[in-house]
Amino acid sequence: MEMTGMKRMSFRTIHSLLDRCLRQIEKAAIILAGGLLLIVMVLVSYDTASRYLFNAPLGFQYFLTENYLLIALVTMAFSWGFRTGGYIRIQGITNLLPISLRNAILRLGLIASGLFVAVLAWKGGKYFLKIYLAGEVEVGTINWPIAWSWIWVPVGCGLLALRVLLIAVGPDEGLNIEYETEGDTV
Amino acid sequence: MTFAIGTLFLLLFIAVGIPVGFAMGLAGVVSMLMLVPINSLLALMTTVVHGTLTNYVMLTVPMFVLMAEFLGSGGVAEDLMLSCNRLLRKVHGGMAIAAVLAGAVLASASGSSTASAASITRAAYPAMRKAGYAASIAIGTISVSGTLAIMIPPSVAFVLYGLMTDTSIGQLFLAGIVPGVLTALGYVLTILFMMKVKPELIDKAKQKMVLEQPESKGKVWPIVLLIVLVLGCLYSGVATPTEISALGAFGALIISVFSRRMSRKNFTTAVGNTLRTTAMILTIIFCAHLFGYFISFTKVTDSMLLWITNHGLSPSWVVVLTVLLYILLGMVMDQAAIIILTAPITAPLMVGLGYSPIWWGVIMIKTAEIGLVSPPMGLNVFVAAAAAKADLREAFYGVMPFVITELVLLSILVSFPQLSLIMAY
């Protein structure tokens, strides 16, 4: 009995430790994402204004934004966004079930989701390594290293997979974060 | 048959509470195992995230959301409401009409209908209640005023439709102008009708008291300038929708800073909300692409067109049935998820039947607009009721006359495609 209690305690401690570590990484990632969001806003606005007003566009803006900044700002927000309720879930049917059964189903769904995202991260990571080692570049006025556009896939999806799996095996209250509807999609 | 199995997987995953994006991705993966070798599937999984997120047009999503968030933080809705109310305060029901007008103007500079509904609620609800408006008509009006942002450009919903169907976002924005203006007019007529039929919806004594108070003024020129910039660039074709979205977000930030309402907390909340929403939408989109690959492999659109031809079903009936399906879906599902999930199926179907994808986009967005205020899942009603701390049942009761108006308007837009296409071509 005491042994089970200790095991549960240690699992909770490990979970809480992992959660705290991940939160710190998410915090750094979301600050980076926010910074990139503002940089992109200014960069695109400046490029547009200088193109139409002074006929002097920033030649690098389009490629830089499309292949590096956009993917970085979005993937860096994945994990934090999910933890703070940034997902759509339809719970009409699951809400009719007894709480223990509902939570078990939600956990299974999250484990499947976490594994799915982990595969995306793994495959993205393998591809990143392949092109990084090959030193592939996009030739132009600037030689753009392609691998640094791909690095965001394993990092962003990896963090998201960890977050989803941590929620799946974590306390019950973490399973039902309601999305903050203000500022929603459409 | 394979398509039916895949769809069943998707519905099952959604029903058991898997987040919609992941449900689409998982259903796509599981269903594709029936059609392609696992190596091909893994190759698709390798490229789907990078391929989706390295598309310049995707930038319109975070930028238009950021623009709406900055405008919300900057208290623009309050200024608009004060100014519109100043124009209409002597009209019976004028404050409700002012809320619609403020919603329409805000929609011209904001792409997010729920952000718009929340802003208008904060700006209009306390004033409407103080002026003697019943809670039901106040919340009903505010909820539908917010939905105008989904139709009047710029609109995130049109961006999503354009991204999922490879339709010109610029043309979609232009196509939304006439239906958006018609919708606002429809709301105004509904308010006037309600005031005639049920004058007791406003407490006249309270209204008189408010009318005797001095008028307040709000600064509207910055927002008008932003609208001129957005719509002007769009209509003249000077800039692309992506460029306009960045300029709009930047303009909204400047307006909010100069109005001195943008605190550090408001700023970080706006950026945080934008990133959360963006991550959510783009996760759904790349997962939907996986499900989209499955749909392409099944060639379901060709099969559906063949089935329709073989059974002699007229294109008009297909449109009517699909619209009805969308109205039903809108009652139980999130509008963004509906657009992302179904547009790649229904848009090619409509094009195959000889209809314009631009027109179909307008019709889909109109059904989404109705879904935003339809019980039991009308998101805008939830947002407005929550922001106003009002009773949800009363809120849905108040929105019903507007839903009827919406259905009439939808029938008009379905019957007269020219109304949607006149500005687009």
Q: How would you summarize this macromolecular structure in one to three sentences?
A:
Chain A is an all-alpha fold.
Layout of SSEs?
The complex is a heterodimer of chains A (186) and B (425).
Chain A: H1 2-54, H2 61-83, H3 99-134, E1 137-138, E2 144-145, H4 147-150, H5 152-168
Antiparallel strand pairs in A: 1-2
Chain B: H1 2-15, H2 20-32, H3 38-53, H4 60-73, H5 76-88, H6 94-107, H7 113-130, H8 135-151, H9 156-165, H10 169-175, H11 177-197, H12 204-212, H13 221-236, H14 241-258, H15 264-298, H16 300-310, H17 315-332, H18 335-352, H19 357-371, H20 379-388, H21 392-415, H22 418-421
Helix pairs in contact in B: 1-2, 2-15, 3-15, 4-7, 4-14, 4-15, 5-6, 5-7, 6-7, 6-8, 6-11, 7-8, 7-20, 8-11, 8-19, 8-20, 8-21, 9-18, 9-19, 11-21, 13-14, 15-18, 16-18, 17-18, 17-19, 18-19, 19-21, 20-21
Task: Describe the protein's architecture and organization.
Chain A has helices spanning 2-54, 61-83, 99-134, 147-150, 152-168; strands spanning 137-138, 144-145. With 186 residues, chain A is mainly α. Residues 179-186 of chain A have low confidence and may be disordered. Chain B is mainly α. Chain B has 22 helices and no strands. Chains A and B meet through helix 1, helix 2, helix 3 and helix 5 of A and helix 1, helix 2, helix 3, helix 4 and helix 7 of B.
Strand content of chain A: under 5%
Instruction: Using the alpha-carbon principal axes, give the shape of chain A.
Output: elongated
Instruction: Tell me the distance between the termini of chain A.
Output: 52 Å
β-strand number of chain A: 2
Q: How would you spell out the order of helices and strands of chain B? A: HHHHHHHHHHHHHHHHHHHHHH
List keywords for this structure.
heterodimer; A: 186 residues; mainly alpha; two-stranded antiparallel ribbon; 5 helices; elongated; disordered C terminus; B: 425 residues; globular
